[in-house]
Structure formats: structure tokens, C-alpha cells
Specification:
By secondary structure, this protein is mainly alpha-helical. Helix content is about 80%, strand content about 0%. It has one domain (about 1-95). Keywords: Membrane, Transmembrane, Transmembrane helix.
């Protein structure tokens, strides 16, 4: 829960920093940046808080399986930050039109 809270706050910051003139590409770039950060944190923390070496034992020493598993976990947990980023971008865009 702490990780999602951290990423959500980071999402709000990124949402207010991205220039609106970048449009959809800025939104996609911001979403990709946040996803990579969250996946990197998930991967570096190990499986259920264990060390990387112990985590790799669970995945038969396969880095690809371990990283794929963490990408899948990140994908499932990314809905809230993505909605926040979209809400901030839409809010800023509506302010610009007034």
C-alpha cells in the first residue's frame, strides 16, 4: 500500500509537470515513466520482501520469469496511478480551455 501511495503522489507531480502541448504522447510518456519506476521498485524489493537471490530460487534462477512476474504485478496495481494521471491531465486541459 505504501508503494501505491508513493507512486500516486509521484503521479500527481508528473501530471502537473508534463506540458499540455505534448498531448497524448506526453500522457503516454508519463504513464510509461511511472510504470517503469513502479516495476523497478517491485523488482528490486524481491518476492514478498525476500532478497533477490531467494526470490530467484522460487523462479528456478530465471531472471526473465522473475521480471515478467513483477511486470504482471505492476500491471495489476497500476490502475489507481493511471486514473490519477488521467484526471490531472484532463483537469489541467479544462482549465486551459476556459
Amino acid at each position: 500500500m505504501t508503494l501505491i501511495s508513493f507512486i500516486s503522489v509521484l503521479t500527481l507531480v508528473v501530471g502537473f509537470i508534463i506540458p499540455l502541448r505534448w498531448g497524448v504522447f506526453g500522457f503516454l510518456g508519463g504513464a510509461l515513466l511511472l510504470f517503469v519506476v513502479q516495476a523497478g521498485i517491485n523488482t528490486s524489493m524481491g518476492f514478498e520482501g525476500t532478497s533477490i537471490e531467494e526470490s530467484l530460487l522460487l523462479f528456478n534462477g530465471s531472471y526473465a520469469s522473475y521480471i515478467g512476474f513483477n511486470l504482471q504485478i505492476t500491471y495489476r496495481a497500476f490502475a489507481i496511478p493511471l486514473l490519477l494521471l488521467g484526471a490531472v491531465m484532463v483537469y489541467r486541459h479544462s482549465l486551459r480551455r476556459d
